[in-house]
User: Fold Type I inositol-1,4,5-trisphosphate 5-phosphatase CVP2 from Zea mays.
Amino acid sequence: MLENQKQAEVLWPRLVANKLFRKTSGSHAFVADFPAADDDDDIVFGTEADGGGGCSPDADASRCVKRARPHERNKTLKYKLFASTWNVGGVAPPDGLDLSDWLDGGDDDGPYDMYVLGFQEVVPLRARNVLGADKKRVGMRWIELTRAALNRSHSQRSRGGGGGKQKVHPVRDGGGGELGREYRCVVSKQMVGILLTVWVRSDLRRFVRRPSVSCVGCGVMGCLGNKGGVSVRFWLHDTSFCFVCCHLASGGREGDEAHRNANATEILSRTTFPRGHALNLPLPQNILDHDRVILLGDLNYRISLPEAKTRLLVERQDWKTLLENDQLRAEVCRGGAFQGWSEGPIGFSPTYKYHPNSDAYYGCATAARGRNKRRAPAWCDRVLWRGAGLAQTRYDRCESRLSDHRPVRAVFAVEVDAPGDLNSLRSFFMSERFDRDQMLLRKDDVNSARFGDTL
Assistant:
């Protein structure tokens, strides 16, 4: 009896914190651009209960499930996906901040089709921000800056601005052809300081189905959202995508990598999405069940070398020796974390830790108790992926000096399964829109019959 009482005393703070976290995080709500006919710029909140809220009215449930169709041939479409992670260090975006250099406008083959952007520490990780509800304003500011930069970049490209030979890319938005409408937010979700936002070209939005979100907190008491992961998923045509933005446990002491491994395991195991009821067929529920998965964020893995040697190797740009002692790669090799995941070759300087507004790495600072707190350079910010149909074509960093981290960017060539003409027709007859139209027709027939009886 006494033992059970002691166990309850230990567990109750975590249970209370878990309830508070679930209440404040709004785990089912997300932000998206709705393709409303009257005002395409409306930002509204959707929930998973209504199928994600971001689906168009004619959302096709039959497309939301991968099924073998041996007698029907699907076609494969190719898209370009831009993925980036940035720990902004709790710095509020200043007025006039232009994100165009970070987001890039695309290459000579045209703009990117999809942007996946993960932020960490969009608010300082103080107790008030972890437990309080007033932390969305800064996140919305980052979303609006992203919108402005993406559409400004595309507008300049479409007009052929700048020197040299330019390619003009026609506007493909069927809603009036305004250049500023070219990218729409599919889904955005914030948990404390972690923000994940996904954007697609406006002409692709009608092919996006069933967006939903999931949050896992791994911070204080093992459940609060100062550390953890935010995941979003949806279908593009007949292919399921899942994107995960993580902020794992910090610390440069020996053995701290075990905490990061535990965080990663928790995020991958505890993240769940609604199964849905599309034609009574189960939808992917876990991260690894999806066709294409990209995980990015401040994973916080360090370099297992003495600080002085690490700094010397950084000055020499000896990336080979440094990467041989990179904790993330070591943990993947020994099976401690992220087995089966891929990462592109790293050919850029460590992204952490810098003096803000400087190109100088952080040396040491005197902590409140007089101890020296060391911050050796490391590749804390990473982009990983898994699943067939993903090929990384670029992996680099951006030189923004806003925070003590540098953003990391990756570009992928993505293959997506799409139904052929026969499948499109078949999908329509099995869709919610067809059922709804049939009900309206039956209702009209009944009303007409009643009207005829009264004559």
Remarks:
- The first helix runs from residue 2 to 25.
- DSSP finds ten helices and 15 strands in the chain.
- Residues 8-17, 35-71, 161-180, 365-371 have pLDDT under 50 and may be disordered.
- The two ends are 81 Å apart (CA to CA).
